[in-house]
Amino acid sequence: MNSLGDTLWTRTLGERWADEHFNAVRQTSDGGFIAAGYWQPQDIYKWLVRLDENGDTLWTRHLDRGSAQAVTVTEDGGYVVGGLGPIGSGYYLGMRIQKVSSAGDSLWARTYGSRSYDWQAYDAQQTADGGFMLVGLEYPTSTAVIGILKTDAEGDSLWSMTFSTTHGQANSVARTASGAYVVAGTALTQTQSGQIWLAKIGYEQIPSMAPSFIASPASFGLSAYPNPFNPATEITFSLPTAGPVTVKVFDILGQQISVLQNGLLTAGQHRVTFDGAHLPAGIYFLRLEAASHLTTLKLVLLK
Q1: In Å, how far are 5, 91, 207, 249, 300 from 31, measured between CA atoms?
Q2: What is the pLDDT averaged over residues 95-123?
């Protein structure tokens, strides 16, 4: 849909003889999408589909047995899939994290758990040190509790923690501007009524991890040099968190002139160039949109 909620295109994917579900989707750096779920002709297999910005399929991958509950775009342009996967050669499934290249080829996979549905991951986020944070649920007994697992860049476990609830699960994780993490989910109370559950995970709870994180900018920044310029200027902008970013140029009448950036970017400083050689001299406006943040900068083109 567009920014007003109007449908731009619709796609239906899958095969008539198989049971298929999508559980997660993320935008890629080129404006396309990566969708993850499962494909079940008889047994169940993780399903990954890469789409372009118009929703047309670029490639499809049926990975190993299990279900993909989460997918995240990594800094190298690949993907990490979180969900359920096989434990050893048996039928049991545990929490699975799998790294996939930009072409959809599996690079490595790790599974945690010792019995059926011991761990389940519902969201994944790449961390500042190149590792991954997975959140979901764990079954230490017959009751599920909220579980969080931190891995290194190769998917090997560094630490895990659980939160005691009557019954609960974590569904989403996001990195804050300060480098901490916010985890959201649901939990049952003593009366068995469901409530929203929210936690902020800071380094003080895991001090051994603190030195490994790389500092990110504390706030959004936007600048252009030179300004005034003729005919080009370098745009520099800083992002405290990763996410979808658009950088656009408008003329004084509010008409869009150029799109300099549209897609996912990592936290940190980024640069793009705006070339006004084909434009008349005058005042233009540069607009940065990232998450709920909006910044505008006036540009002056001299000729």
Answers
A1: 18, 38, 37, 18, 29
A2: 80
